[in-house]
Amino acid sequence: MRHVLSRLPLALPLWSLLAPLAALGALAWPGTEGWVLLPIALCLGAAVLAAVHHAEVVAHRVGEPYGSLVLAVAVTVIEVALIVSLMLAGGDGASTLARDTVFSAIMIVCNGVVGLCILAGGLKHRVLAFRVEGTSPTLAVLAALSTLTLVLPTFTTSSPGPTFARPQLMFAGVVSLVLYGAFVFVQAWRHRDYFLPVATEEGDEPAHATPPSAAVAWAALALLMVCLVGVVGLAKRLAPPMEALVQSMGAPASLVGVMVALLVLLPETLAAVHAALRNRLQTSLNLALGSGLASIGLTIPAVAVLSLFLPNPLLLGLPPTGIVLLVLSILVGALTLGSGRATVLQGAVHLVLFAVFLFLAVVP
């Protein structure tokens, strides 16, 4: 044990070991008013940075695309747990919470994360390369899942409103699991080479570094989980002050879900931008699109089962504005990811769409 601990600081600096503990301590700290908000916010930021570091250690050990898959699935599992806990707690927004959270996650990763990565990487490297054979099929699965689960309920007639009847909801949950399982099988085993970063001089430098030992990687994975729990827990604690802020602004209640989703997805965003700056856009796209798929593929089955025990119907169908933004995002994403090359122009387009989404979330 002493030998293992002596090796951990080589790949895991002291701050990355203390940040998860600080996040857990902040979770136990009483109250979220006044000056207490500042240390909670600082602990949240430290947990996000530590999560990114530990995810990169794990990714370096297992290689791509497994590293991206680990972070995407870990964040989404805890996101689903947060959604389920809030839905069980009830409230006025419980019926639309799953829809608003999943839709926000899709808009964040497909426009915000992708746009920021392409813009940042394009400014540094001019032209970024990625593998069309990996990104285009992933976007196709994301388009199919998002349409079947977020658009189709608006037009079905077996139940009133933008809802699925119970058999339809169960079928949608099974379909989501099947498609996500097929994606994971293709990404991790069948066609793993489609999701590996394109070889570049700048991007290959980290790959030649000595991978961390198995003990360090396992320690980083455990600390990653602790960090993600801290991120989600602190985001949940900060939700009431954010809700009060939203109410004071006169904005819709769904904006709280957007703000929480932004906080929860911070680790993936920072990891994706870091990869893009190293000219590894494929890793960034694996993180972004994989997170969107995991969000739908795991959330819809979970809420489908949960709906059996909820008194209120589960509203999944998007309003017309959301449908337009979703279709436009998928169309622009298909054009961006269809050439294998990206520049700052594509990044600017995606960021503008993300800005429109945020603006309409405040002023619907």
Automatic annotation (TrEMBL):
User: What organism, scientifically named, is this protein from?
Assistant: Roseateles subflavus
Q: What is the lineage of its organism?
A: Bacteria, Pseudomonadati, Pseudomonadota, Betaproteobacteria, Burkholderiales
Q: How does it sit in the membrane?
A: Multi-pass membrane protein
- Top-level lineage group: Bacteria
Q: Where is the signal peptide?
A: none
| A Pfam family hit | Na_Ca_ex
User: Domain named Sodium/calcium exchanger membrane region: which ranges?
Assistant: 37-188, 220-362
Q: What is its main location?
A: membrane
Record protein name field: Ionic transporter y4hA
- Indicate where this protein resides in the cell: Membrane
Segments spanning the bilayer are 35-54, 66-90, 102-123, 135-156, 168-186, 215-235, 255-277, 289-310, 316-337, 344-363
What's in the keyword line of the UniProt record? Membrane, Transmembrane, Transmembrane helix
Q: Does the keyword Chaperone apply?
A: no
